[in-house]
Write a structure and sequence with these properties.
The protein is an alpha+beta fold. It is built from two helices and eight strands, in the order H-E-E-E-E-H-E-E-E-E. Strand 2 and strand 3 form a beta hairpin. The longest helix is centred in the N-terminal third of the chain and has 24 residues.
Length: about 150
Amino acid sequence: MAMKSTLLVTLFVLVLLASQAEAQLGGLLGLFNIGGTIFCSANGNAVANSTTPTPPFANALVQISCGGNVISSGLTNGSGVFSIVLNPLQFLLTTLLSSCNLVVASPLSSCNSSLPSTGILQAPLQLAGTVIRGLLSIVNLIPGTFELIGA
């Protein structure tokens, strides 16, 4: 009987530890997905009430920068869409949200010669939500409001 109760206590402790680990890691497997669309404008957004649609910023170099250090990068596709995936075991969500920015390192003039050739677009990261797919937890982050820095 003592062995059975010891086994039950051990099983209970293991279940408790597993649930705490899952809460900290966001599931058994997880990732951060940082994504969005960059448009060819002075603020990286589509221009509202424009007579002509704002074109996407194709082939733009986008970077995740934390404390001035680039931790990951990617390129937008022909539609201005990008997606950068980070491992949550290497980065904390709180750090990404408080200390990291999405930087468009390509000059705006490369998509439209009437836009500035100096400066970069920069936006803080914002939490867009979490999706659970079986054992996979995907934390989606998007850029906040872009600012043109150094123009």
